[in-house]
Amino acid sequence: MDTMRDRFIATTARLLDEDPRLALVLAEISRDGFARAERDHPDRVVNVGIREQLLVGAGAGMALTGMRPIVHTFASFLVERPFEQVKLDFGHQGVGGVLVSAGASYDWPAGGFTHMAPGDVALMDTLDGWTVHVPGHPDEAETLLREAAAGEGRVYVRLSLQSNRSARPVGGAGGFSTVREGTGGVVVAVGPMFDNVLAATQGLDVTVLYATTVRPFDGEGLRRAVGGRPAGEVVIVEPYLAGTSTAAANDALAALPHRILGLGVAREELRRYGTMDEHLAAHGLDPHGLRERIGGFLGR
């Protein structure tokens, strides 16, 4: 199976052929994959070099002219390093575009902490008007990317090497989908966390929701899932900073008695490179770690 990043490259190359409004802005990362697109559309495929602030600023400048920019690099260089440009050049100026990241929280541990971005979604959450997609499979990434490219708003698409075995229907309204129904609590699995959550909750009497669009947060969907339980117990499993969505969930359930556990990447920096799977296990995001923490929280 191809990776989400592979699918992004193939899909974006086709979209550039189909839609003259689209432009692609790169900062060296993934440039080799766009060699043909760069030859065919030299005025709409721009590589700015290792200049991430310019990367975002150039994309926003294109948006000001009426183009629809797709801006791409690793998450740490797309959201964290040029955050001021994301905030001002896109948000303050009120223009739309599509930011597409690779690298996720720890896809390339050997790159060190400079190439890890577990706080990216939390950082984007400080800005108004952004839609945030976290696909869990290359097919989902393609669907969400195509919708974002055809739209007008500000969209962040977070890609990862971690992928679920099968794709699920995504897009459209972007609400949480119910995968399994139970009476003993609600577990929200975000993007590539889905397979591990399913394995971890096997045999537990819980409702499992699947989320690929995390902003705007589907508060209504969460309220429906919690329903009339006397004590709504909710676990949110995210592939980025633990607790990123607990405030949104608390707001959604403000009128209901509830408890929320936010699971994700810990704040503690892991200074050993290791592998992606080893980082998952170290943060308790593998099936065994999730089973222990979800079961403990729900009293199972």
From TrEMBL:
Per the UniProt entry, what species is this protein from, by scientific name? Streptomyces castrisilvae
Protein name per the record = Transketolase
| Gene3D superfamilies membership | 3.40.50.920, 3.40.50.970
Domain (Transketolase-like pyrimidine-binding) ranges: 2-166
Q: What is the lineage of its organism?
A: Bacteria, Bacillati, Actinomycetota, Actinomycetes, Kitasatosporales
Q: Which domain of life is it from?
A: Bacteria
InterPro entries listed in its UniProt record: PDH/Transketolase, THDP-binding, Transketo_C/PFOR_II, Transketolase-like_Pyr-bd
- Segments spanning the bilayer are none
